[in-house]
């Protein structure tokens, strides 16, 4: 049985995170992304993992958080949400062109009564 918080987080992951992170070409993101959102890159091709400067991620307060149509070549599975108090993690499986490409772990925090994405770590399965 899903709690209201689990439903809210799944909606954020399905309709906002997936679109803004993978499919949108806009320079702004929905307000569910916290302004200090950080992304940790794994070690790829011998390069050391690092925290990415996410200054390109600018939440736009007036932007509506509406579900958007997803491209057919990119698909997502949202099968895990784990909540402890006011912190949570969501697991997002990303397939591009039918190939398992990424497993993303999205960190969320309840701030002023609203769930906000504050960071991301991920594993790369296949590079395109």
The CATH topology assignment is Nuclear Transport Factor 2, Chain: A
How many domain modules? 1
Count up the helices.
Answer: 1
Category from helices, strands and their pairing: alpha/beta
- For the biggest β-sheet, the strand order reads 3-2-8-7-6-5
Helix content: 10-25%
What labels would you give this structure?
single chain, alpha/beta, Nuclear Transport Factor 2, Chain: A, 6-stranded mixed β-sheet, two-stranded parallel sheet, 48% strand, globular
Can you tell me about this structure?
The protein is globular. It has one domain: Nuclear Transport Factor 2, Chain: A, CATH 3.10.450. The protein has 128 residues and is α/β, with parallel strands linked by helices. Helices cover 16% and strands 48% of the residues. Strands 3-2-8-7-6-5 form a six-stranded mixed sheet, with helices on one face. A two-stranded parallel sheet has the order 1-4.
Question: What is the secondary structure topology, with strand pairs?
Answer:
Layout: H1 4-23, E1 28-29, E2 33-41, E3 50-52, E4 58-59, E5 74-84, E6 87-96, E7 99-111, E8 114-124
Parallel strand pairs: 1-4, 2-8
Antiparallel strand pairs: 2-3, 5-6, 6-7, 7-8
Brief summary:
By secondary structure, this protein is α/β, with parallel strands linked by helices.
């Amino acid at each position: 049985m899903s709690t209201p918080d689990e439903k809210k987080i799944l909606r954020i992951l399905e309709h906002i995170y997936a679109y803004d992170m993978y499919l949108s070409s806009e320079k702004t993101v929905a307000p569910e992304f916290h302004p200090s959102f950080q992304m940790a890159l794994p070690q790829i091709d011998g390069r050391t993992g690092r925290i990415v400067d996410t200054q390109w991620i600018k939440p736009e307060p007036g932007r509506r958080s509406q579900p958007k149509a997803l491209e057919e070549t990119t698909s997502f599975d949202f099968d895990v949400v784990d909540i402890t108090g006011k912190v949570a993690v969501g697991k997002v499986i990303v397939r591009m062109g039918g190939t398992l490409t990424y497993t993303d772990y999205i960190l969320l925090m309840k701030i002023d009564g609203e769930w906000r994405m504050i960071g991301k770590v991920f594993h790369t399965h296949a590079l395109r």
